[in-house]
Amino acid sequence: MEKVNPRRPGSQAPAAPCLAGVRAPAAPNRDDGTSNAMLAQIARRLLVAIPTLFVIIAAAFFLMRAAPGGPFDGERQLPPEIEKRLLAEFNLDQPPLVQFQRYVGGLLQGDLGPSMKYKDKTVQQIIAEGFPTSAIIGASAITLALLVGSALGIWAALNQNKLQDAGAMAFAVIGVCLPPLVIAPIFSLVFGVQLHWLPTAGLYRDQFTLSHLTLPIITLALPQVAVISRLMRASMIEAMRSNAIRTARAKGLPEAQIVWRHALPVAMIPIVSYLGPAISTVLTGGFVIETVFQLPGIGRQFTTAALQRDYTLVMGVVIVYAALIIFFNMLADVLYGVLDPRARKAA
Length: 347
Fold this sequence. Notes:
MetI-like fold
């Protein structure tokens, strides 16, 4: 028996009921969720960074006071009246806790205090004089390390288990085993004293020449070139073996396009995660480089101030370096979360 359709010919299906004034729910915006996750991650990093910086300040403050000697101890003994007046001027006649309380109060007002050795100069002025030199050397060294190390790692990965790979990794092992403390005197002796190719000292503030900066930058960058090349090699090998690369090759894409457009962005993720420790190592390595090559940077100022027990200048340099290290580590974490959605979801 034939079934009869109850709808009449030409009639339309009944429309879904519509409530006046009620809108359909909007689709969730993934960009808002991503931005909120990133903001939450930055907020968590800041909550950790502030107490970390405070602990560093407290540790450096009390360790400097605990070290033998003082800022006014010299070969000639000062008269008791003058020494008493100097101690009172810098609050050194107060108990350590009172000194720390007053110092933190000045920090909250943006005051790092006066130098105990440089007359009529504040710590801010001294750091501002040496910061350009340290910034140029550090930024140039980390840039050189990223470029050369990444290129060397990619070259080794594309020639895996060949002579090129063995040579690149041998260079990386040598670079890791030789710290700047060893490389700097060797380079200075060979290229400066014996061959006379490059100067080893004589750089003045606001007079940056490539010949004076070449040896310090290469010396500071060489260990990071070795580490980054090893990271890039391992990461690139893993990326080239992924299913996405196999699919790209199956589609007939050129090998250069596969390497630069598909494998390299994935291989760069571990390098970005290493940027924080790399910048920290470059910043701390600047102490040795600036001392060996006699550069007027913050690192050399710190070394001189520590030997002279210039408490306020040592504290100012420690605060600047600690803040920079914390900032760059936080920036590396944020960039890693941007490049790798899995890390963002985990955070």
